[in-house]
Write a structure and sequence with these properties.
Blueprint: H1 34-38, H2 68-75, H3 85-92, E1 96-100, E2 109-111, H4 113-116, E3 125-128, E4 133-136, H5 142-158, E5 172-176, E6 182-187, H6 191-194, E7 198-210, E8 216-225, E9 236-237, E10 240-243, H7 250-262, H8 266-272, E11 274-284, E12 296-307, E13 321-328, H9 329-337, H10 343-355, H11 367-373, H12 392-395
Parallel strand pairs: 1-4, 7-12
Antiparallel strand pairs: 1-2, 3-4, 5-6, 7-8, 7-10, 8-9, 8-13, 11-12
Length: 396
């Protein structure tokens, strides 16, 4: 399917970008020759790299019990260079790399060809077919770039062509450059279209009590997502999870999300929540994420634990959560095997199991790989320690 963007110009105000007269279809399959898709080219031993890859529809791992490694692979689904260099290069040479003018050595994300080509010919953007790159040329500082990005994404939403933008959040996410410099902010709903790193916070609340055998028993508060949520409806989450908005620290985001999603008081969270590290992965979105599939989502999740007294009960405080259930460790493990948890929440729970001794080398032959895969090194600029600071004059 293709669009005549000339007919859409009247929909877009003069303050928004003007679209080129033609572009390729949003359907990624339309951007590739079928014969190439059926027989994707892999690198030869002489180092030649592929120019296209069959972007097959990503699907969850099939029915039946899922192993812990299955759960990792389902979330951290972008290929690793260390284990499959051919597939890694086939992917990276299919997508377009996102850059900002003045930072030519820093890839900020990967974009589907069908998304990148929609921006071809727009002011402030340069698409290089040979280098397979999309560069934000306009703006000389964060404020100017953010304004351009906002104008562009609003125009993209106005076309009604990008389903992922149907749920516009009016929430800005940061995009960082080298040394943690904030390059621009972008609407949350648009992050996956540009393949930039996003950040979130996850809290697992648990209780300790004496079991029937007299031994200490740990139970976890598990959240059931609303059946009406755009993303992963009806699936299970760890207790609280949410995205970190631009200018917000991970812990302040956590305090806010705990109140909004679980009705947990600020005093309880501030006094009891413990930062335990991060979980990071590179996800290729499937149909459960809502909107277009195949979009890329590298993410960093800041992880927290919170031990609750038995009389403290999380309760839904908004329409995103249907309810909470206190589950034993065996019950949570069964729900994981059954594929009931949202993919990134499954990783957070595996991290919890490792740290608390509920998953060890004796339990799983893939233990070493599982632990290392929970903390993927992302090859994009990331924030440093503390709040983002705009040090652009020193970083560029």
């Amino acid at each position: 399917m293709s669009f005549d963007f000339n007919s859409l110009k009247n929909m877009i105000s003069s303050e928004m970008p003007r679209w080129p007269a033609s572009h390729r279809s949003m359907n990624p399959d339309d951007d590739f020759d079928e014969s190439v898709a059926a027989n994707p080219v892999m690198p030869d031993f002489d180092g030649r790299l592929p120019t296209a890859l069959d972007l097959t529809e990503p699907v969850p791992i099939g029915d039946g019990p899922k192993s812990n490694l299955d759960l990792i692979n389902e979330c951290d689904s972008f290929p690793h260079y260390q284990t499959n260099a051919d597939l890694f290069f086939a992917h990276t040479n299919t997508y377009y790399a996102l850059y900002v003018k003045g930072y030519p050595d820093d890839e900020l994300g990967y974009i589907l060809p069908s998304v990148a080509n929609v921006l071809k010919g727009l002011p402030d953007w340069t698409l290089d077919e040979d280098e397979r790159s999309l560069t934000l040329d306009g703006g000389s500082n964060e404020q100017e770039r953010s304004k351009i990005v906002a104008s562009t994404t609003k125009a993209m939403a106005a076309t009604g062509h990008f389903k992922v933008l149907d749920k516009w959040r009016d929430e800005l996410y940061p995009v960082y450059g080298p040394k943690g410099v904030l390059l621009f902010n972008i609407e949350r709903a648009a992050t996956a279209l540009f393949g930039v790193v996003t950040y979130g916070c996850h809290l697992t609340a648990y209780t300790k009590s004496k079991g029937s055998d007299g031994k200490e028993e740990v139970k976890l508060w598990v959240a059931r997502r609303s059946a009406n949520k755009q993303t992963y409806p009806g699936m299970l989450d760890n207790t609280v999870a949410g995205g970190i908005a631009s200018g917000e620290s991970p812990f302040e985001s956590l305090v806010r999300e705990c109140a909004e999603e679980a009705g947990l008081s600020e005093d309880i969270v501030r006094s009891g929540a413990k930062a335990t590290g991060i979980v990071s992965y590179f996800h290729i979105r499937d149909h459960r994420a809502g909107g277009e599939t195949r979009l890329l989502q590298p993410e960093v999740q800041y992880v927290y634990d919170l031990e609750l007294a038995e009389d403290v009960i999380p309760k839904p405080a908004d329409d995103e959560v249907e309810g909470f259930e206190l589950q034993t460790i065996p019950e949570v493990k069964k729900a994981l095997r059954d594929g009931e948890f949202k993919p990134n929440c499954a990783l957070v729970l595996l991290d919890f199991f490792v740290r608390h001794g509920f998953l060890s080398y004796e339990d799983d032959e893939n233990y070493t790989e599982i632990v290392s895969r929970l903390h993927r090194k992302l090859e994009f600029p990331l924030p440093g320690i503390g709040p983002a600071r705009n040090l652009e004059t020193n970083a560029a």
